[in-house]
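User: I've been going back and forth on whether these two constructs are worth ordering. Before I decide, could you fold them both?

Assistant: Sure. I'll take them in the order you sent them. The first construct and its structure tokens:
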Amino acid sequence: MEEKEIKQYATPDIGINELLQAHPDAFIALLECGMGCVSCPSAALETLAEACVVHGLDVDDVCDYVNKSIAEKESEKA
């Protein structure tokens, strides 16, 4: 059985604000990844990749986690 491909909501070059405006549920996923300051003023100007560098996180891992989290929330709403 093939694993269903997860839609790419979060990408390394998406702005934190852009991601949160489009998918407010991403806030919790980002916190769970270790980004405790996603609501700080600096985050409004950063891409996901830039924020990952600041927090010492792997951007691909964070994108995967956030995308899976958003996909789960989307399927719950459907």
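The second construct, handled the same way:
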Amino acid sequence: MFPFFKQEPKPDETYQNLLDNLMLTKKSLDLAYQNFENATDPELIDSYIYEVNAIQKRYKFLLCRLKSYETADS
């Protein structure tokens, strides 16, 4: 009836889960960076360095999964 109200197909559940996890991981990474910048105790600094590295690896993993999922659908 009205072509400009055409609905986009909804992404499937797996794709949406990957996007949601990527967003949550990004928020965790931002928080870990903020904690690192405000830390003064050397042991806390070391802890936040490990935390940032772990979250970065998880973010990279999710991003690669998301990209491979997108290319598989194409």
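Notes on the second construct follow. The first helix runs from residue 13 to 38. The helical segments are 13-38, 42-73.
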